[in-house]
Design a protein that fits this description.
Shape: globular
CATH class of the largest domain: Alpha Beta
Low-confidence stretches: 300-304
Distance between the termini: 48 Å
Number of strands: 10
Mean pLDDT: 93
Bound molecules: iron/sulfur cluster, zinc ion
Length: 306
Amino acid sequence: MKCRVCKAPALVKFPAHNAAFCEEHLDAFFLRQVAHTVKKYRLLPPEARVVVALSGGKDSLVTALVLKRLGYRVEGFFIDLGITEGNFSPASRQACEEFCAAHEIPLKVFSLHEEFGRTVPEIARRYPRLCAICGMTKRHIMNEYTLKTGAHALATGHTLDDMAAALFANLLRWDLHYLAKGLPVLPAEDGFAKKIKPLALQSEEEIIAFARLHGIKPVEARCPWAAEAKFKRYKAMFNSLEEKSPGLKRAFYEGYTKNVHRFQEETTRPPLVTCKVCGLPAAASPCTFCRIWRNAIKEDAIPAVT
Ligand code: SF4
Ligand SMILES: [Zn+2]
Ligand SMILES: [Zn+2]
């Protein structure tokens, strides 16, 4: 197995690209791929300031490193959920702190306990669908923080595997609202920061190879609620299809990005009001986030999060 570029012994092989690379050309290939995604979907203008949502996992750490290598002004943002079971939150925080120190990336840590005096496990006692509440909490805080900093966009570490699996799940349900929003970019709107997914066309195996190449040490602890994590079955299905047809996952997702306008024409956003507590757009006022974390109303009156 030889590097496609220099013919030296290859470190990795990517069947989806029908190519193998040595260390040097793996690095160049990965940067070029992400630069292409950034340009094609207009994720960031040159040298833009971008907040990267860090979880301590390899995907978000790689997102931060690759954007920095591409010349963007990266700020890391970590939300400490206060999940001490299995040492999850402390270990995740440490992984982010070590990564940011090693790569000279400024890091802001937002602690739920420090800000609101409560943590996700404390909330879990009340809500059986914890991941829905936790996801909503993270999205709200990341959006609010990015708007406050005035950064050009909020970047998350969603991968091609995430995008293809979410697209498939939304197709199975014919969920037109989400089918209209599956691009690697969601433009800024009043009260909503621009959201970007620079790794949307990179597969797990490419990201793992790049992370190893740069000695990135992601957190090993797992959230005790991770069994609830979305789309596991669909990811496994795509991986087994990909073994027989390399490149299928990417073709499926890129095909969607060319046809997304068909869904966008069909859907209209449900009407929003302004949350009287945080001032951001929401389905109702106070918004679910403010109801739960800012005690805007009695907790037993909180509606289900979808
Ligand atoms: S697995 Fe669920 S509870 Fe754990 S961090 Fe993810 S969304 Fe939150
Ligand atoms: Zn090479
Ligand atoms: Zn609110």
